[in-house]
Amino acid sequence: MQYHIYKYIIAIDHFKNELYIFNNQTAGDTATDGLEKLEYLIKNKNFPEYHFQLNGEEESNLTDQQFMDTVDKMKQHIFRGDVFQIVPSRAFSRKFLGDEFNVYRALRSINPSPYLFYFDYGDFRIFGSSPEAQITIKNRVASIFPIAGTFKRTGDDEKDAALARNLENDPKESAEHVMLVDLARNDLSRHCTQVSVKAFKEVQYYSHVIHLVSQVTGRLHDGVSSFKIVADTFPAGTLSGAPKFRAMEIIDANENIKRSFYSGAIGFIGFNGDFNHAIMIRSFLSKNNTLHYQAGAGIVADSVPEMELNEVGNKIAALHKALLLAEEL
User: Fold this and answer.
1) The Chorismate-utilising enzyme C-terminal domain covers which part of the protein (predicted)?
2) In sequence order, what E strands does the chain have?
3) C-alpha angle with apex 151: 113 to 180, nearest 5 degrees?
4) Which candidate, 282, 266, 136, 261, places its Cα nearest to that of 211?
5) Most CB atoms closer than 10 Å: which of 79, 112, 124, 261?
6) Pick from 118, 116, 114, 117: which is nearest to 147 by CA?
């Protein structure tokens, strides 16, 4: 876990095309010219631009057949009663030359999601366009937004509308979604009162997929810190399964690599206890001129391995497109 407090913050309102500069001052900090220096840098500093180029073919920790075999293995755990639902994943990597910031520029253009982020930690970078919150807390009201149920978009509005209706009525997708909504309710009930489902199975459209999304909320008990509920609801059920702990044990025993950044969370904490954390999906980790990315599929009793393989492909389609577009920038 890693959080940072930044002395200077530049906030950009993309809707109003306005830029704000903030200076967080600590006790004993008497400097008064920081904002002026930052404003000067914004107006006058020139940054070099570098191209991006893919270098070699995509690699994966699993073949298509191996992933489908994993789905069958997960179904056996479900039939034995170990879990009701579980989310195995598949990892990919691609070597590159140049500046991977162009990939982020491309990704935010073709897949504008609620959470767009780019963090440069020196020897590695994390960036993405995640559609899903891990948890949000505002004025001591916690919210989880389970996303479960995925169909690929066609590019035709009428066909997509028909697909959305099919998605809402699909027994497998509905079963998966209901389980994860129940899991979110159980997670919040440990530290909240007034737990309720504010929205259920709403259809949301993204650049390459259609999702079913719900909202579960609860008010924190008196004396419960925001950190406590954030920790106890992590990781998201939509990236692990139900029951969560047993699902994570099975995933750990069967996936041949550690998940690392994938299915983690990234976001901010307010000094007042507010939280806003995104799940790291539709995201890249860049290290040693290699981009790493990953996607999973929710497995229930009637899952079809070929369909789950396609779901993984649908989820990373925007990432693939961003890689190709970045070479043109």
Assistant:
1) 64-315
2) 8-13, 18-23, 52-54, 59-60, 85-86, 89-98, 115-120, 125-130, 133-138, 141-144, 147-152, 192-205, 209-220, 241-242, 265-269, 275-279, 283-287, 290-296
3) 75
4) 282
5) 261
6) 114
Residue 220 sits at φ, ψ, to 5 deg, of: -60, 140
Residue 203, C-beta contacts closer than 8 angstroms, at least 6 positions apart: 164, 167, 168, 210, 211, 212, 213
What's the pTM value of the predicted model, to 2 decimals? Answer: 0.87
What integer is the mean pLDDT of 190-219? 92
Structure-block tokens of residue 90: 């598949």
In-domain check, residue 15: no
**pLDDT of 37 over the 90 cut:** no
Inside any domain, residue 37: no
136 contacts: CB under 8 Å, gap ≥ 6: 142, 143, 145, 275, 276, 277
In a domain, 93, yes or no: yes
Structurally, the chain folds into a number of domains equal to 1
Reply yes or no on whether the pLDDT at 225 is more than 80: yes
Give dist(CA 127, CA 287) in Å, integer. 12
Answer for the pair 126, 280: CB distance below 8 angstroms, yes or no: yes
Report d(CA 217, CA 138) in Å as an integer.
Answer: 11
Distance CA 288, CA 86 (A): 32
**Residues with catalytic annotation?**
211, 238, 262, 282, 298
Q: How confident is the model at residue 29 (pLDDT cuts 50, 70, 90)?
A: confident
Structural domain includes residue 23: no
Q: What is the CATH number of the domain that holds 249?
A: 3.60.120.10
Place of tokens 């990781």: 235
Backbone φ, ψ for residue 159 (5° rounding) = -65, -40
CA dihedral 48, 12, 326, 277 (to 10 degrees): 120
Average pLDDT over residues 169-183: 89
Confidence at 298, pLDDT banded by 50, 70, 90:
very high
pLDDT tens, residue by residue, 94-127: 999 999 999 999 999 998 888 999 999 999 999 9
Q: Note the pLDDT tens digit of each residue in 248-294.
A: 999 999 999 999 999 999 999 998 999 999 999 999 999 999 999 99
